[in-house]
Amino acid sequence: MHQEAKRLTYLDNNATTAIAPEVFEAMVPYLTELYGNPSSAYAFGKRVGASLIAAREKVAALINADPKEIFFTSCGTESDNTAIWSALRTTGKKHLVTTAVEHSAIMNQGEYLETQGYKVTWLKVNSEGELDLKELENSIHEDTGIVSIMTANNETGVIFPIKEIAEICHKKGVLFHTDAVQCPGKIKIDVRDTNVDFLSLSGHKLHAPKGVGVLFVKRRTKLLPYVVGGGQERGKRGGTENVASIVGLGKAAELSLASLNDEQTRVRALRDKFEKTLEEKLPNIYINGKRDARLPNTSNIAFDFVEAEAILLRLDLEGICCSSGSACTTGSLDPSHVLSAMGLTPARARSCVRFSFSHYNTEADVDYALKVIPPIIEKLRAMSPLNPNHTDNHDYDVEAAREKEEKLMAETMAKINE
Ligand SMILES: *Cc1c(COP(=O)(O)O)cnc(C)c1O
Fold first, then answer.
1. Model pTM score
2. What is the C-alpha to C-alpha distance for residues 8 and 216, in angstroms, rounded to an integer?
3. pLDDT of amino acid 387
4. What CATH number does residue 36 fall under?
5. Distance CA 83, CA 240 (A)
6. How close is the Cα of 202 to the center of ligand 1, in Å?
7. CB 3.0–4.6 Å: which of 160, 245, 276, 394 could bond 212 by disulfide?
8. Which of 13, 74, 77, 356 to mutate to test the pocket of ligand 1 (most atoms within 8 A of CB)?
9. Percent of the chain beyond pLDDT 70?
10. Residue 1 lies in a domain
């Protein structure tokens, strides 16, 4: 049976974003008639090359960099990997300092480096997701090649004091990389003010296409190419440029500068209304992350006594997209490493859902979500064995309840796939 088409309510903008119509429009010529290779010597190629120069200038303007400090890559992950790999290679040092709450692009690279004889310090966070800068300072020693700390966390939106962190690193003579993938259009990014050495961005988190990223490298900082090939990107990143996506990213950079104010006022107000209303309607919910030090678009909420995956499936049936922090692999519901690092119990961490808004969300989206979410949580809680108010709480069987929940999830999945 075909499900009635529901309006899509997209509240998962930290996972990826819609391509802005202006971005798409700017790209079209480079996917159609302007297909020349930007490295070619004839005018047809040079014209394409000129579009790369313009895009580089726009991206530089977004973060107050010089265009010469901008290198285009294939994604945020490649930018993150390049910065760390290059810093360790150029310094010859064997120690990386990072946090326990990084994106997998950093976390899994750190774990890989550990298998290759490198040492990694995983800085802890407190229950609000904040770092202890004293601990950071103490963790840096003479074999430390680089410190990598994200500007803002993708799961909770918690913002780190990047300028202070860069200062600590430089005082100790160590390079500093920051993953700022979540920040464009949400908070101001200024590489001159914060004085970072490397900074990563990703196109698809700022309304540009997937498969294009940026690595900012401060002038006079050594950079070894991670992808070795032709002389593209001034010899620092081989491979014919993803011209259309880079042009799109340039346009998106321009737009995100222009939408910064809207994001910090209107989008923030939508997010705050969303949280406040849910808190009024539902007991036993908790907002994760330090409230006043978060990205204006992100809301990560614990709904005690229910499994996030069950919430997500039911919201999906109502056309609402959002996510849980957990990487739901082969049915094992591992709690998010970020929420675990903040000290949430596994049960509470498994109850957390992330809602992330954007410039394109409206009051109607939020009102719809606020109408749909509370009854779903109430229904799930009524049948949850974890709920202390549950009627048959005295002799409940957690295993049986989980089995029942999994069966329900499988049925829901089957229904979706019909
Ligand atoms: C999405 C994301 C990345 C990865 O970017 P890709 O372009 O998908 O590789 C890295 N870091 C953070 C914080 C992200 O949110």
1. 0.92
2. 35
3. 79
4. 3.40.640.10
5. 20
6. 6
7. 245
8. 77
9. 89
10. no
If phi > 0 it is left, if psi is from -120 to 50 it is alpha, else beta; for residue 343 that is left
Q: For 320-333, what is the mean pLDDT?
A: 69
Residues 247, 118 share a domain: yes
Tell me if 262 sits within 8 A of 359, measured CB to CB.
yes
Q: Whose CA is nearest to atom 6 of ligand 1?
A: 76
Instruction: Please count the structural domains in the chain.
Output: 2
Question: Which tokens sit at 40?
Answer: 């070619």
Angle at 388 between CA 383 and CA 391, to 5 degrees: 55
pLDDT tens profile 184-225:
999 999 999 999 999 999 999 999 999 999 999 999 999 999
Q: Residues for the chain: how many in total?
A: 418
Both 81 and 174 in one domain: the answer is yes
Do residues 158 and 223 both lie within one domain? Answer: yes
Ligand 1 contact, 79 CB (< 6 A) = no
DSSP 122-183: EE-B-TTS-B-HHHHHHH--TTEEEEE--SB-TTT-BBP-HHHHHHHHHHTT-EEEEE-TT-
DSSP state of 354: E
Q: Which residues are catalytic?
A: 328
Q: For residue 332, what pLDDT is reported?
A: 53
Write out the residue range of the structural domain in which residue 167 sits.
21-256
Considering the domain boundaries, does residue 4 fall inside one? no
The answer to whether residues 245 and 308 belong to one domain is no
Q: Give the model confidence (pLDDT) of 219-250 as tens digits.
A: 999 999 999 999 999 999 999 999 999 999 99
Q: For position 285, what pLDDT does the model report?
A: 97
The enclosing domain of 308 has a CATH number of: 3.90.1150.10
- Which of 200, 202, 227, 300 is the pocket-test mutation for ligand 1 (most atoms within 8 Å of CB)? 202
> Residue 404 and residue 133: Cα distance in Å, rounded?
45
Domain shared by 374 and 316, yes or no = yes
